[in-house]
Design goal:
Blueprint: H1 3-11, E1 16-23, E2 29-38, E3 45-55, H2 58-65, H3 75-99, E4 109-120, H4 122-125, E5 133-137, H5 140-147, E6 150-153, H6 156-161, H7 170-178, E7 185-190, E8 193-199, E9 209-215, H8 218-227, H9 247-253, H10 274-284, H11 291-311, E10 321-325, H12 332-341, E11 346-349, H13 360-374, E12 393-395
Parallel strand pairs: 1-4, 4-6, 7-10, 10-11
Antiparallel strand pairs: 1-2, 2-3, 4-5, 6-12, 7-8, 8-9
Helix pairs in contact: 3-5, 7-13, 8-11, 9-10, 9-11, 11-12
């Protein structure tokens, strides 16, 4: 069948099977979510059929990290890894499909986020002559060819082209999946960077927004990987809970102008890096802190960014509920800080809304693909940072 005709036939199916992919800044593996969709927009019905996180090898992880979030890198390696990431992801997809008892012909579309290697909104690069920018690698054509499945990818570029900053994109899926009349909700995702979507119980799309709020796991993960050999993250906050928060260092970490900037906004590990921490320790003369105390302070730092951002919208909410997702929701010390500072808020998991919290971001990209195939963007009004667009470039297999 002609490729375009095949694309059209799949787009009008009553039920479509779409695999959503997410590979975040932690680089622990590829989140693969197999979803069934019926309909589009506010009439979309979504069911998560299967989910897994496919582990990366240490070699692959080191290759990606060699070009991740650095202003100066080996350009040849960037070129090579654009293909290598896609080929690796395709292999993991093929294995997951077989493991779940499906065939590749059963799957209608793949929605690939790719691997972010640099995020450069104007607020970070501060160069007036240049636009917002971001770069995700993992070429969609390679995924399509190696899986035989139509692939949508590179979602963030349309967001930037239409006036956004390329992140966060959660607003589009969160509004369609999780809005509920009569309940004011905050969909809080604590990944490498923490972000949330504000969903008013009025269902007024012009009031909905998503914003980054500060570091989630990124600084804690970076610190653990540098100073605790063999560890990639602080499991169950074991290290942080054995230390004490240093208020002087904490206050210095919170001084960056990002925290006072208006919503929506975006950031990344390009700002919240080991350099950021080292400069804060140098200026506060806290270089001699124990590693456990630094970890406790970094955990509190992540919590304060979230707390302060939530407080900024509390006045517009009645009986607010925060629904958690992302790796940071498994950090007991971080949650302890959040609950202590926000006693008026009910904290729940997206599992109570029938979406595995670890799968949520991959599901959201599957939904973005479904909306692009449907071709009807949600109207969020004429607001900066929240363009009403469909996203994703379509790659056809051989």
């Amino acid at each position: 069948m002609n490729q375009i005709a095949n694309l059209y036939q799949k787009s009008i199916k009553e039920e479509k099977l779409i695999i959503g992919l997410m590979s975040g800044t932690s680089m622990d593996g590829l989140d693969i979510a197999l979803c069934a969709f019926k309909g589009y927009g506010d009439k979309a019905q979504i069911k998560l059929l299967r989910f897994k996180t496919a582990d990366y090898t240490d070699t692959f992880r080191k290759q990606v990290k060699s070009i991740f979030s650095k202003r100066e890198v080996d350009l040849e390696m960037v070129c090579l890894m654009n293909e290598q990431v896609a080929i690796t992801h395709a292999k993991l997809i093929n294995e997951a499909i077989a493991e779940w008892g499906y065939t590749n012909n059963d799957i209608d579309f793949i929605a690939s986020h790719g691997q972010t290697i640099y995020h450069a909104p104007k607020s970070l690069h501060c160069r007036d002559e240049f636009p917002n920018a971001t770069l995700q690698i993992g070429d969609g054509d390679h995924i399509a060819v190696h899986t035989g499945i139509i692939t949508l990818s590179d979602f963030r570029q349309k967001h930037i082209a239409a006036g956004g900053e390329g992140a966060p994109l959660a607003v589009y899926g969160d509004y369609l999946i999780f809005s509920e009349r009569g309940e004011d909700r905050i969909m809080l995702n604590i990944g490498g960077i923490a972000n949330y979507t504000y969903l008013p119980g009025s269902l007024n799309a012009s009031k909905v927004f998503s914003t980054d709020v500060g570091p989630g796991n990124t600084l804690m993960d970076q610190y653990v990987q540098r100073y605790f050999e063999g560890l990639y993250y602080d499991k169950d906050a074991a290290i942080a809970q054995s230390g004490e928060v240093n208020e002087v260092l904490l206050n210095k970490l919170l001084e960056d102008s990002f925290f006072a900037a208006a919503f929506p906004k975006t950031t990344g590990p390009e700002l919240f890096s080991m350099k950021y921490l080292q400069e804060a320790q140098f200026s506060t003369k806290t270089e001699s802190l124990s590693r456990e105390d630094v970890m406790a302070t970094l955990c509190r730092f992540s919590a304060e960014g979230i707390i302060n951002a939530i407080k900024r919208v509390l006045g517009e909410m009645s009986n607010p509920v925060v629904y958690l997702s992302g790796g940071g929701m498994h950090n007991p010390l971080l949650l302890k800080f959040l609950k202590a500072a926000l006693p008026q808020i009910s904290f729940k998991s997206t599992s109570e809304l029938s979406i595995n919290p670890d799968a949520k971001e991959a599901v959201l990209f599957a939904l973005l693909a479904n909306e692009t195939i449907g071709g009807e963007p949600v109207n969020f009004g004429d607001r900066a940072g929240v363009p009403s667009v469909c996203m994703g470039k379509i790659s056809l297999p051989l």
